[in-house]
């Protein structure tokens, strides 16, 4: 289990790194082994890591692919990552880790949003395209790995848990009784 969090601004301002750091810290129980952050202009993301596959620091997140100008935060496990890795190597991709996170990153570089059609597993991730400023978020088909988000006219925020997402709020949001009835 890991935890991811972040913010993408639409109003021309820099992302609130401090808020994302609070969100990420709130996820400490999901990833007690390490924490990482990335911020650049309108985007800030954070990750709490539970080391499972590649235990090295090379597999730390947020993971950056300088060749494709991509940044990813990932929670979960792509069970067929070894097969996908071989396929991606045939396309010329080179890997520096043995993690499924890097496979997610290279798969996005190769297939774009359709990469999720190739993933077997449980996952939630966000990829940020540094060249375009676009972000892509996905989670597994059954929602095993959670990905909560909120959006407004000025930003989009996400986190692995609701308490983490609330860490970025300036005031406590109102409870929607209908949504509360369906939550759970």
Q: What is the top-level CATH class?
A: Alpha Beta
Helix-strand string: EHEEEEHHEEEEHH
Distance between the termini: 20 Å
> What oligomerization state is this entry in?
single chain
Give the total of beta strands: 9
Radius of gyration: 16 Å
Strand content: 25-35%
Low-pLDDT parts are: none
Total domain modules: 1
Structural class: alpha+beta
- What's the tally of helices? 5
Strand order of the largest sheet: 2-3-1-9-8
The percent range for helix content is 10-25%
CATH domain topology: Glutamine Phosphoribosylpyrophosphate, subunit 1, domain 1
Globally, the shape reads globular
The biggest sheet, with number of strands, parallel, antiparallel or mixed sense and barrel status, is: 5 strands, antiparallel
Q: Can you name the CATH architecture?
A: 4-Layer Sandwich
CATH superfamily membership = Aminohydrolase, N-terminal nucleophile (Ntn) domain
